[in-house]
Amino acid sequence: MNKSHSISKKRKLYIYIMKAVMTVSVSLTVSLVAFLIVYVLYKGIPNVTWTLLGTEPSYLKGTVGILPDIINTVYLVFTTLIIVVPIGVGAAIYLNEYASNKKIVKLIEYASETLSGIPSIIYGLVGMLVFSRYMGLQTSILAGSLTLVIMNLPTIMRTTQESLKTVPQSYRDGAFGLGAGKWRVIRTVVLPGCIDGVITGCILSIGRIIGESAALLFTAGFAHSINNYIIGLSSPGASLTVSLYVYAKEHGDFQVAFAIASILMILALCINIAAIGVSGYYKKRRV
Amino acid sequence: MNRNKALEKIIHGIFLFLGLITVGFVIIITVYLIMAGIPAIRQIGLINFLTGTEWKSTGEHPSFGILPFILTSVYGTFGAIIAGVPIGIFTAVYLSKMAPKRVKSFMEIVIGLLAGIPSVVYGLVGMLVLVPAVKTIFHLSDGASLFSAMVVLAIMILPSIIKVSISALEAVPKEYEDGSLALGATPVETYFKISVPAAKSGIAASVVLGAGRALGEAMAVMMVSGNVANMPSIFQSVRFLTTAVASEMSYSSGMQRQALFSIALVLFVFIMIINVLLNFFFKRERK
Questions:
Q1: Handedness of CA A247, A249, A254, A258 (dihedral sign)
Q2: In this structure, are A38 and A102 located in the same domain?
Q3: Which of A192, B116, B147, B241 has a Cα at 20 to 30 A from A119?
Q4: What is the CATH classification number for the domain harbouring A78?
Q5: Contact B15 A108 (CB under 8 A)
Q6: What pLDDT does A286 receive?
Q7: Cβ of A90 and B19 within 8 Å?
Q8: B155 interfaces chain A, CB cutoff of 8 Å
Q9: A62 and A118 housed in the same domain
Q10: Sign of the CA dihedral A88, A94, A95, A101?
Q11: Which of B11, B23, B125 sits opposite A183 (nearest CB)?
């Protein structure tokens, strides 16, 4: 390649600078992530003990435990998904399979885009007004979950819709041709075809729920007590993120805060890899 | 046969309902925010509320001016964009045009992780690393400042900018680039002088998306900005629209609480403006 010899010095300099800036930008991004992972794990992992993971906070013994927060987070994830998946998948099926009126499709898509742009603090506030106060759920896991349902609906809808679009039209035509009704076609042909979108959506939502804090402050509250699922739903409970905030900002207990942060970090890592893995797996199977 | 038709109709209706739930949520959020936000604005007066420079929500003679919060949010967002956008775009150009496949899929995980880290973790690391660093470097009495918040926000908006810019850059027709290369431009020149301008609507959309994220972030900012209702100044402790709501909501009552709802309404209006802009750029990109 003699090309580089034939261009002017000014152009060479331009290329050189652009390449340098790109290298700096990419390495900055990578080192930032590397630093965050290493720093949080280094500060946090030594503080992750069995007492921390397996007990409730006790003033008598002076120990801190995050078991209630772990359980609350699991309740939040479970409750949210159970409600949001049917709605999201249903909405996606409507948009992709039923809707013939372009105006309605546009309206729903616009609404979904709007929802995904609303900040979580506003969700928290509206959740408090609507679920905690108006519907009388008080500050509870259920009120928190319902708030999270609204937040995660666009995600489930989008991933499901994307995978619905990859179900070949000929499958549907074939089923129709054999005399199946619309509902039967959806149940037997369309739904199985969009399972990867639903799984991807669930993984992304789990990540978002685990990481959410601002929307839960006023809807799910700060309590650290262990309840069974039914009682837990109607009682307040702090998620891992909320208790991280409380331990760091209000108690100044950074050891516990970093322990929680390291757990959250590992979860984020797993979820991220799982999401990429799932979409890769299904892509391969399709081809 | 008739029974089947009726069944199909009912099922169609159910899916339509599920689809319209999203629209319902948007309406509920809007209506509730307006209903909750208007009373305080009425009592204080819109002009006084928006341009008042003093926020004293508790105390004998409370005053509710939110100009400090508005300006802090606007400055903070601009700061984050000025720092985050160049890094994001250069990274996106490298990843979409030059990176080997392996580097690209590795970076996908890295960027996904950056997006997946909960905001409280950013806040925690910011509190213990960034804030002390800012304090020593700039010889301040306290590092919790608008500047620290800008840095954290710049990092947090990076993933949105990189992801959306990459998809915009990848959508640039190959012919444009081939044409430029055939005329003797080097690859790097082609990417920056042909591909980036051709993808400018999408890149603009990524910037607007990032602005929305920065404007709406609450928890991370609350942990690094000091949270005092000063008029914004780069090295002073400040309070954002989001953090104003988050920090006082739990103990507020009466007029103070009403005013917090009004702040949320103002934030919501900002986000809606951003949504409209975002739609505009995405539409232009599709053309």
A1: positive
A2: no
A3: B147
A4: 1.10.3720.10
A5: no
A6: 62
A7: yes
A8: yes
A9: yes
A10: negative
A11: B11
Q: What is the mean pLDDT of residues A178-183?
A: 84
* Domain assignment of residue A91, given as a range: 51-286
State residue A1's pLDDT score: 47
Query: A37 and A57 share a domain?
Result: no
Specify whether the CB–CB gap between A161 and A93 falls below 8 A: no
Average pLDDT over residues A83-95: 95
Closest residue, chain A, to B187 (C-alpha) = A15
What's CA B7's distance to the chain center, in Å?
A: 45
pLDDT digits (tens, 9 = 90+) for B86-142: 999 999 999 999 999 999 989 988 999 999 999 999 999 999 999 999 999 999 888
| Interface ipTM above 0.85 | yes
CB contact under 8 A, B19 and A19: no
Q: Are residues A84 and A195 in the same domain?
A: yes
Q: Do A17 and A83 belong to one domain?
A: no
What domain count does chain A have? Answer: 2
CB spacing of B246 vs A121 below 8 angstroms: yes
Query: Is the domain of A38 the same as that of A20?
Result: yes
Q: Point out the least confidently predicted range of A20-34, A149-163, B221-235.
A: B221-235
Coil, helix or strand for A63?
A: strand
CA distance B122 to B29: 28
- How far CA B226 is from CA of A20, B126, B145, B148, B222, in Å, comes to 36, 12, 6, 9, 7
Closest CA to B199 of B232, B176, B222: B176
Q: What's the token pair of residue A80?
A: 């949210």
End-to-end CA distance of chain A: 38
Domain ranges of chain B: 2-51, 67-286
- CATH classification number, B67-286, choose in 3.40.50.720, 1.10.3720.10, 1.10.10.60, 1.10.287.990: 1.10.3720.10
Are both A96 and A150 inside the same structural domain?
yes
User: Do A111 and A79 reside in the same domain of the chain?
Assistant: yes
Tell me the per-residue pLDDT of B243-285, one tens digit each, with 9 for 90 and over: 999 988 878 888 888 999 999 999 999 999 999 999 888 888 7
| Both structure tokens of A115 | 């929802």
